[in-house]
Amino acid sequence: MHSPAKQSSTPEDVIIEPRRPEFDFSTAPKYWLRDPFATHFINALSVLVPCSERTVIDIIRKYEHKISDPKLRKEIAALIRQEGRHTFEHYRCNTALSGCGYSEIRRYERIQQVFIRMLRKVDAAIWELSMPAAFEHFTSAISKAFIRRQNAWTSGKENSAVSFTGWHALEELEHQAVCFDVFAAIKKKTWLLSVFLIVLWIPATALSIYGIQLYLLYKDNALSSQRNWRRYFRFIAWSLPIFTRGALKYFNRDYRPWNMLDEATYRLHKEKTTRDLLMQTSSGGK
Ligand SMILES: [Fe+2]
Ligand SMILES: [Fe+2]
Question: Which residues are close to ligand 2, an ion, with C-beta < 5 A?
């Protein structure tokens, strides 16, 4: 009897661990990151999280039975539990945001739902499986950008929303390989991920996030001076490479999501997040 082929590329010492922390968003300051631009960029991302991550769960569940590697199957189960919790917490976060006067947030969520529903009318496996892989490409890229340059994002600020973002970033990094591995196990043509990213997902994701960010900044009257517009364009130039960097990597047949730098980033950030979550728990989620 031979053992099933190895389909998981997550390192042996990375355990995908579903955590259930609680966050009290009411204690976070309005600009919980270094300035309105960084804050509203991550707030805009949060608006897109519930629908994107529910889509990841749906599609991965649909194709899970085609996976033979027990390690990858276990990782899929853990990813589903992590994403379920992220969806729940981000929905809460978005409710708190819309209660702060950004009432159009719920409309943006609905527009995204209609867009995704339309794309899901095409039910070819290669197309469906590319969606979670593309979403996870962005969540892992944004998470690494946040973790590696946390001080540039926060300017040293600590609050419940920073801990919340740190927790989500850790879990995105932890399960970064799973949707890619599922795609690679079922459909070998991973180079198609680069094509879909360039043609559809990079423009759609960047436009959605910057568009919602612009709305949030407009509501705050944060773009009323030339100086602020200059800061806004500087922020876009600083953040845009997060979306575009690595888009061509799937053309490399030997590409695998984890490298040594990722493992070092993961270990350090896991330690910090574990401490943060313990502090959140001991202060009752405040
Ligand atoms: Fe997530
Ligand atoms: Fe994810």
Answer: 139, 172
CA–centroid distance, residue 250 to ligand 2 (Å):
18
Ligand number nearest CA of 84 is: 1
Nearest ligand for residue 173 CA: 2
Under 8 Å between Cβ of 21 and 167:
yes
Whole-prediction pTM: 0.93
Given pLDDT bands bounded at 50, 70 and 90, which one contains residue 5?
confident
What letter represents residue 64's amino acid?
A: E
Residue type, 81: R
- Spacing, Cα 144 to ligand 2 middle (Å): 13
Which has the closest alpha carbon to 257: 155, 183, 186, 150? 183
How much distance in Å is there from the Cα of 77 to the middle of ligand 1? 14
Is 271 inside a domain boundary? yes
How remote is the CA of residue 192 from the centroid of ligand 2, in Å? Answer: 20
Mean pLDDT of 150-162: 94
Say if 199 falls within a structural domain: yes
Question: How many Å lie between the centroid of ligand 1 and the Cα of residue 160?
Answer: 17
**What is the distance in A from the centroid of ligand 1 to the CA of 53?**
6
- pLDDT of 286 reads 46
Taking the C-alpha atoms of residue 247 and residue 243, their distance in angstroms, rounded to an integer, is 8
Number of folded domains that form the chain = 1
Q: Which domain holds residue 128?
A: 28-282
80 domain-assigned: yes
pLDDT score of 276: 81
**186 pLDDT above the threshold of 60:** yes
Average pLDDT on 47-64 reads 97
pLDDT at 111: 96
User: Is residue 176 included in any domain, yes or no?
Assistant: yes
What's the CA-to-centroid distance between 164 and ligand 1, angstroms? 11
Which ranges constitute the DSSP H helices of the chain? 36-63, 70-98, 105-119, 125-148, 150-154, 160-174, 178-186, 191-196, 202-219, 226-244, 260-282
User: Cα of 50 to ligand 1 centre, how many Å?
Assistant: 9
Kindly indicate the confidence band of residue 274, based on its pLDDT and cuts at 50, 70 and 90: confident
